[in-house]
Design a protein that fits this description.
With about 190 residues, the protein is an alpha/beta fold. The chain has four helices and eight strands; from the N terminus they run ββααβαββββαβ. Helices cover about 35% and strands about 25% of the residues.
Length: about 190
């Protein structure tokens, strides 16, 4: 069973993550362990859709982690993968993960097929001056009637994206209960 770490220091609700992410900007290869380099490269390959052993390892871990969420097959859960900057990059990033989750979670409502993009993101995730409408580049067609939403993202840093997406969903469909699952949490050397 994969080990799930929990971090509640984000406004959206409980955020679970599987790995610590040591960015190349803060941690050169020789500053982290071989295992952490393997994980980092797997996450980077996940983000870019590159097929590799380490990408498959992090996808396997994520599928196992989502399966451990209480009530995941109750039929009252909607799963929403936080979109990347375009439909094409989201499909590369989440395609295999969603296919595997659909096999294992037949009662979950998968929302991402209904995400519509209105344009590209204007800001990068790691900029601290993010605007309140930085997720306004997409909207969701159809409905999310389930009271519980699982947000899936690759990396959580400050939690802005998860909060913005949850607010977008709440504004469009009414207030939901959120659980967030991410592959990793960014670690900074301070």
């Amino acid at each position: 069973m994969v080990r799930i770490l929990r971090d509640e220091n984000y406004k959206v609700g409980p955020v679970y993550y599987l790995f610590n992410y040591y960015s190349k900007n803060h941690y050169p290869d020789d500053a982290i362990s071989e295992e952490d380099r393997f994980i980092r490269n797997g996450i980077l390959n996940f983000k870019s859709g590159i097929d590799s052993e380490n990408r498959n390892a992090v996808i396997n871990a994520m599928v196992e982690a989502v399966m451990q969420i209480p009530g995941i097959n109750s039929g009252t859960v909607a799963l929403f993968c936080v979109p990347a900057s375009s439909q094409g990059s989201s499909a590369l990033r989440y395609g295999e993960l969603l296919a595997r989750l659909r096999q294992n979670c037949p009662r979950v409502h998968f929302v991402n097929d209904q995400v519509v993009f209105t344009g590209e993101k204007q800001r990068k995730h790691l900029q601290s001056d993010r605007s309140a409408d930085s997720c306004s580049h997409f909207y969701i067609e159809g409905r999310i009637d389930e009271p519980n939403v699982v947000l899936i993202d690759d990396i959580v840093t400050q939690g802005h994206t998860l909060l913005e997406v949850s607010q977008l969903i709440d504004n469009q469909f009414g207030q939901k209960n959120y659980c967030c699952m991410t592959l990793a949490r960014t670690v900074y050397n301070r």
